[in-house]
Amino acid sequence: MKVTIDEHSGFCWGVVRTIEIAEQAVADNDNNSVYILGEIIHNPKEVERLEKKGLKTIYHNDLPNLKGTNSKVLIRAHGEPPSTYSLAKELGVELIDATCPLVTALQNRVKKFYNEGYQIVIFGKPQHPEVIGLRGVCNDECVVIQTPEEALEKVDFSRKTLFISQTTMDKHLFEKIRSILQTRVKELYAYDNYKEQLVVKDTLCRAVTGREEHLRKFASENDVLIFVAGRNSSNGKSLFKICIETNPKSYFIEEVEELQPEWFKNARNVGITGATSTPRWYMEEVKNAIEKISLEK
Ligand code: SF4
Fold first, then answer.
1. pTM listed for this prediction
2. Which of 6, 221, 203, 28 has its CA nearest to residue 123?
3. How many domains does the chain have?
4. Is residue 68 pLDDT above 90, yes or no?
5. Can you give the CATH number for the domain in which 281 is found?
6. In which band, very low, low, confident or very high, does the pLDDT at 30 lie, cut at 50, 70 and 90?
């Protein structure tokens, strides 16, 4: 049985950057603990590895306890709303900003259009940390939608609108909603005015959408596909959907212990892939475990 790790899988550059900043921050702090606001990525294995080095995960409720402790708190790739920055300032807590530059650019875009009076429509999950940050930069005066039905129900078509997306959402659904919004606006406004009325910016991250085509190919080339990711990873869920649509023998695991020997019965090729938050070193462990199962058969 041949076991191959997808060469396009592993951390996206934004996550690599955040992890490097975190490791550097711990080293610069004489190996004293550095805190991070929320899990650095939705992957328990990588969280555990970094915690051993001194990166401690805390949550927003814990911030007031750091008052007067000279603590350093890292902001992860998803970004934070302005209220987090003001609270840290008030408490005298030093923030190390590791927000992904693409997320910062998206926040700035939302802020600009909001200040110009546009209605902000976000295709995303309302409680996803990146969306909480985006909601924060427009004082939560925005519409968050996840389906075409919600778009038609919640968007105020009498207002000039900016339509953007959380960076890790599904591209096909984004396009579908874009087309529904454009059709409605075209019905309501003269041709020359509709583009002004509805500004659409495709803010999906290419580190995620660019992987879709390759992933379909990789999933179809293997008899069995093992998808490794944290169960809370939004990006993991959308990439796994592509795998299972292409190859029904695709299995999602978070832990190596979840592998089932019967999945590999009669398989000649097994592929291993993962989300943009799945560490390469953990996929190597999964590969070793599958090879062991194949020897025991
Ligand atoms: S998926 Fe894209 S936006 Fe998100 S952290 Fe990675 S590079 Fe940045």
1. 0.85
2. 203
3. 3
4. no
5. 3.40.1010.20
6. confident
